[in-house]
Please model this.
Amino acid sequence: MASTEGRDRGEVRGPGPLSAELAALEREITECRACPRLVAWRELIAREKRAAFATEEYWGRPVPGFGDPEAHVVVLGLAPAAHGGNRTGRVFTGDRSGDWLFAALHAVGMANQPTSVSRDDGLRLVGCWIAAAVRCAPPANRPTPAERDQCMPFAIRELALLRAARVIFCLGGFAWDAALRILAAGGEEIPRPRPRFAHAAETWVGEKPLLGCYHPSQQNTFTGRLKPGMMEDVLRRAQALAD
Model:
């Protein structure tokens, strides 16, 4: 349902349409109810809402990936924000973390605009696909290991269907660890010792490089751990590796 709704309201995903396989995966993701704790939380938030969004209809379901189906760079985050992706139905859309991410993508030419507030705001990604390791908003932004593992098959299938993907750009340590698990589950051998997350960390798993970037959470941006320009620098490295 979510897949066709978004496109009917004018969402611009990228240069080309979704393949039938990606569209089917999207529908499967948005209908998932496998994790009782996450289902209860996302639906509670959608009912109670934040005062600033009291008149809006919340998405309140799992949030699929989006972007350019021919993307060379896959941006992997942690999970939808309770009043961001869980409200808008598009990951990083309508929250402060997304403000940083889309501004950086725009600065390096991978997004046609520097902000995104809704699924139908005209955002277009070029050469980039954005997804989350866990597709439902978790309490306190902390999925359990079991919830992470339950959601992982979606990411494995998604990455396999993004056939042009060459680089995985990981926002934060959770996404870095999830990316290593996703690639291992897909048959790739993880380097030993196991690569550790750091800002601008770079490692190769099989033929795919992983790049680490501090997550644009308020904890990182308000404290100055992630400063303007830092994300753009790592994105440019991702573009260079993809080329």
Q: What stands out?
A: The two ends are 36 Å apart (CA to CA).
